[in-house]
């Protein structure tokens, strides 16, 4: 009875009033799982199982240590050690699924088409290239065309993370591949326009490219 | 004119990154790392190019760990009362524990929504191209720090 209530779809009149829609079953399930996992508080300090496997437990009362209060209530960023401990940007292996990133790719296509004012076939390739230089590539399907290391050639996948020296792409086989930018040429295809990225020229963080000025024509070799 | 166009590209990029973070979380609510990476990139781009982001965007990002705050998925939203009258909405990031406290004030009007801000933006082009848009940029900042609604509180 209760379960049926939980799984009930939103009534039609409410859909209009609230502007929300019922999700598909798999999506709703994923949301519920994540919601429950986040809602149940985890006490790492009071992890009993861990504590009992330890050598000895002293039964006694210790006054809980007062945590040092910060003078200001402002949020402070995390330092590098904390970031490393949190694995702040590492994608967990169970989330490395190719089909989970397909909507991201669709979103990316829309973004690029919007960026290039519609991207008609009559567009000047130079113009498109200029726009792509400053564009974001997260979500693009990229292929390694040439590389000094032959085993990288032909690798295709959705680019999920761009770092200073590497691209992290997810291949169709649900594998996360880390490809160094240096000494490789990548190709990006969108609506018939194929653009080549010279990785050696791209060795910056994803955020730095927005501000950088590129030379019109530099020497290009691998 | 060229400067304006360049900004437009950057804003489109910020917009895309923000949407991408939402897209990733809607596909897989547990993949917080990637969403956080996109929001972090978005934040760094905005910082490098000195672009102001809308308060509605800023309020959905964690100041500490840069993750996207979606109530129920990556954040909890609770109502808290201080005195009899003042009530706050407390949004707590589930990933790092940082919380932000927003005053419930239906009459509160953001600086960008106020008519003065619009006037100032319209005045901008008259000053000529040599004047940088510093006055425009510094004002929203001042207003944001003086209003209680955007202040953050520790846990
Ligand atoms: Zn956080």
Automatic annotation (TrEMBL), chain A:
Gene3D superfamilies, A to Z: Ribonuclease P/MRP, subunit p29 (2.30.30.210)
Superkingdom of the source species: Eukaryota
Listed GO biological process terms: rRNA processing; tRNA 5'-leader removal
SMART domains (alphabetical): POP4
Spans traversing the lipid bilayer: none
UniProt GO MF annotations: ribonuclease P RNA binding
Keywords: Nucleus, Phosphoprotein, tRNA processing
A GO CC term assigned to this protein in UniProt: ribonuclease MRP complex
Function of the protein: Component of ribonuclease P, a ribonucleoprotein complex that generates mature tRNA molecules by cleaving their 5'-ends.
The family this protein is said to belong to: Belongs to the eukaryotic/archaeal RNase P protein component 1 family.
Protein name: Ribonuclease P protein subunit p29
From TrEMBL, chain B:
InterPro entries reported in the protein's UniProt record: Rpr2/Snm1/Rpp21
Biased composition (Low complexity): 143-155
UniProt keyword annotation of Metal-binding present: yes
Keyword Metal-binding (UniProt): yes
Signal peptide (from-to): none
Pfam families: Rpr2
GO molecular function terms attached to this record: metal ion binding
One GO CC term, this protein: nucleolar ribonuclease P complex
Superkingdom to which the source organism belongs: Eukaryota
Location of the region described as Disordered in the Swiss-Prot/TrEMBL record: 119-155
Keywords: Metal-binding, tRNA processing, Zinc
Family to which the UniProt record says this protein belongs: Belongs to the eukaryotic/archaeal RNase P protein component 4 family.
Name used for this protein in its record: Ribonuclease P protein subunit p21
